[in-house]
Design brief:
The protein has helices at about 5-25, 30-45, 55-70, 75-80, 85-110, 120-130, 135-160, 185-225; strands spanning about 165, 170. With about 260 residues, it is mostly helical. It has one domain (about 5-215). The termini are far apart. The relative contact order is 0.11.
Length: about 260
């Protein structure tokens, strides 16, 4: 199979072409084109999350744990979270991704299992679609599809490397057909991946309606008669305290009296 450098190099080249296509042909902004190219490049490592460790698992876990909370800022605004709540949510997402999701991959997946499949590529794209809400559905789909493209580049390279070409002969390895597939050999893994795919499809389909209801609720709360905004009052002008002598039980004045001999 292709090694890590081959996968990341190929997905990076395809990501550059994908970003250029979006900017020149799909009227995407330069920032969206660069972001989509970067997502395509990094997604070339996603199928190897089932490799029980190594460079792909380490790099993807650190990258996703750091970047996903930043991409969810618009989602946090839809939920009308305060700045403190956003910071807490970002820290929680970091911990869940860094120490939860990727620990799941290490324990419950096998290399070249159902995570090396076409429904897994679609699931990765839908997760990216849900993580990155945008005002434009076109921009959102463009960036989510970049993840699918990077995922597919990895699968295609695995299938190409499973074919041995010699002099007047063509031979396939045992791993041929284990990447670009719809079903694997484990029925439980098949059911789990397709259940996840259908759940993500339903969530993505209803996501815009849910976000719209959240925005309407936030606007209603701000415009309701019982709610009134009270701006913070400016600080009062400071004046130094006025010190006064305390009332003493004896006279504070001093009189010199001659001492008697």
């Amino acid at each position: 199979m292709a090694d890590f450098k081959t996968h990341i190099s190929a997905s990076t080249l395809v990501g550059i072409a994908y970003g250029y296509w979006g900017v020149t042909s799909q009227s995407m902004s330069l920032e969206n084109g660069i972001l989509a190219g970067g997502l395509c490049s990094v997604s070339g490592m996603l199928p190897d999350l089932d490799s029980d460790g190594g460079i792909p698992l380490r790099e993807i876990s650190m990258f996703a744990a750091a970047v996903v909370p930043m991409m969810m800022l618009n989602r946090f605004r839809d939920y009308d979270l305060s700045h403190e709540s956003m910071a807490l949510a970002a820290m929680l997402i970091y911990v869940v991704i860094r120490f939860g999701a990727f620990e799941f991959f290490k324990r419950f997946t096998v290399h070249r299992g159902m995570w090396h499949s076409l429904p897994a590529a679609a699931s990765a794209g839908l997760i990216a679609y849900l993580v990155m809400p945008c005002t434009s559905n076109g921009e959102r789909a463009y960036k989510a599809f970049a993840v699918v493209v990077g995922f597919l580049v990895h699968l295609i390279l695995d299938e190409i490397w499973a074919v041995e070409v010699g002099v007047a002969r063509l031979r396939t390895k045992k791993s041929f057909g284990t990447a670009l597939k719809f079903f694997g050999s484990d029925p439980t893994a098949n059911v789990f991946v397709y259940a996840m795919l259908f759940a993500l499809c339903y969530t993505a389909w209803s996501d815009n309606a849910i976000a719209s209801r959240l925005r309407e609720r936030a606007r209603y709360d701000l415009s309701s008669p019982g709610w009134q905004y009270t701006p913070a009052s400016p600080p009062a002008q400071w004046s130094p305290p006025k010190w006064q002598l305390p009332n003493l039980p004896f006279s504070a004045s001093r009189t010199d009296t001659p001492l008697s001999r």
